[in-house]
UniProtKB/TrEMBL annotation:
PROSITE patterns: CBS. The keyword DNA-binding does not apply. It comes from the Bacteria. This is CBS domain-containing protein. It comes from Planococcus halotolerans. Residues 195-253, 256-314 form the CBS domain. Keywords: CBS domain.
Amino acid sequence: MATKHEQILDYIETLEVGEKISVRRIAKELQVSEGTAYRAIKEAENKRLVSTIERVGTIRIERKKKENIERLTYAEIVNIVDGQVLGGRTGLHKSLTKFVIGAMQLEDMMRYTEAGNLLIVGNRYKAHEYALQAGAAVLVTGGFDASDTVKKLADEYELPVISTSYDTFTVATMINRAIYDQLIKKEILLIEDILIPLENTHFLHHHDPISRYRELNKETTHGGFPVVDDSGKIIGILTSRDIIGFSNEDSVEKAMTKDPITVSLQTSVASAGHRMIWEGIDLLPVIDDQGKLCGVISRQDVLKAIQTAQRQPQQGETIDDIIISQLQMKPHEKLSLEFRVTPQMTNSYGSISYGAYTTILSEAANSALKTKNRKDSVLENLTIYFLKPVQLDSLIYIKPVILDISRKSAKVDIEVSFEGEIVGKALLTFQLLDR
């Protein structure tokens, strides 16, 4: 039977897109406490089922698929620009296709403004009116108001008119950054992207006999299986090591390892992979917010996903991407790399930031390891035991030396120099993975 929390989430999903909801309404209609309703609405917001806007409330929005995640709703625009909704609140759930900056003559402006657009403009009241008639929402910059006629039109066409205190340039930058962030999120592989769904997952019930484990092991050749209770919540995991000393008639619950390591649907694949390596496990149960089993991922699933992702074209460039693109092989010197410190890589004092520095070290070590074998590597430990400040625009040289390499791990020593002087030393340990 579904919990009250799950019932609220299911109820929210049944609501029409654009419908306004509140803690009090949910509590009253589903006969739950306001605290339970509040927590469920917050989770719905995390799942992008609803959007909460100050002075407006919480509205049901269309759940976005990952391939469409870069499209923002007008409700999200309100939150991005700290805006105030002047009219057309019933249209806040709609997504915009593009935004247009109104920095031209009215007639020219309207040539670029189409249905589904967002016109960003100051206190040009005719432009507000014409945009709404063309099917576009309006974002009024500079803290200006809109006319009563425009507000009525906004309500009639169900197209939001939003006011923000920021100027047009700042607003465009903020929206661009939000879209860019969404593109980066779109590229990050999450567990939900590679999950083996529950209907294809083999698992055990806590009251099953150990003979059931042996049957599944023979059928699938898998070494371990998650264990759930009667409500579907995961309570343990059973592996071949756990059943040593137990008979076929003993219950699974008696032999299982309790409180197993689990991940959520929103955990990144890279994070899950690193944890599996660190803990020395081959299978990770995936749970939802209520602790119920959603499926499992294996180490092979993680490796395959990471290798596939590495071959995909990038749409959003992260700081790591920028740093890696700056690394160049030093002419006439095997394995040595050079790197110029750019403004994006510095801290408030104008020297290279610690984050940029560690990325440079790990990438340099990775490039050295790839010359020795074709295995994937995961950084396990990084120790910087000498570091001097490196200033902006400095051209530094990075020399990795492989100290030890085995079938499963490797140690790499790195020396960083500037103008012939050593400015950094570090030791990195990697886990090596078969492709």
